[in-house]
Amino acid sequence: MAKLIVYYAHPGQRHSHTNREMAKVARDVDGITFVDLYAEYPRSNIDIDKEQQRLLNHDVILFQFPLFWYSTPSLIKEWQDLVLEHGFAYGKGGDKLDGKRMMLAITAAGPEDAYSKTGYQQFPLRTFLTPLEQTAGLCKMEFTPPYVLFASLRAPKEGLVDPHAKGYRALLEAVRDDRLDYADAASRDVLSFETLPIMEGA
Questions:
Q1: Within a 10 A sphere around the Cβ of 130, how many other Cβ atoms?
Q2: Cβ within 8 Å of residue 8, ≥6 positions away
């Protein structure tokens, strides 16, 4: 079994529909570690030693967040700046994350077709996530395409919150149980509750 930690970051979660339901699911999955970053560090006073030890104790690091201005909420960036230190995560002697895996679970307000060269966002979603993907590479981690819900603001009216949350549970359990087909996942731009490459009976 893989040791999975979920870092949840949503500064306005009381107004959230999808991320709040996803967080409930993640808290409920046995055998994984769930961290609500804004609850734990409301003043951004991140405990570097504690967070580095958490990384050492886990095989898969998953960040769950809504896309904010084409990036992460600010606390994730602060976490990265402080926790992923030279000599720990990269650079000379910085091999502590070598062989681990980074994953993302993201909600995006815009529809899927907006994230394309011809859409109003002008770029694919993965383009906006390049800094995270490159961070994984610099830290010698594997990067898995993100689990995404597009048009998340319309999701409650369209009945998509529940299937997305159930898909999230399936994803977390598959990662925990080593049943996610990472080779298949790597061939996709993004993952959704309709396209999860989960191996049965593994």
A1: 10
A2: 19, 22, 23, 26, 34, 35, 36, 37, 64, 65
Q: Is 159 left (phi over 0), alpha (psi -120 to 50) or beta?
A: left
Amino acid (1-letter code) at residue 95: D
Query: Has domain 4-186 been given CATH number 1.10.3210.10?
Result: no
The secondary structure of the chain in percent helix, strand, coil, rounded to multiples of 5, reads 40, 15, 45
Please give the backbone phi and psi of residue 78, each rounded to the nearest 5 degrees, phi first.
-60, -40
pLDDT tens for residues 17-68? 899 999 999 999 999 999 999 999 999 999 999 999 999 999 999 999 999 9
How do residues 69-109 score in pLDDT, each as one tens digit? 999 999 999 999 999 999 999 999 999 999 999 999 999 99
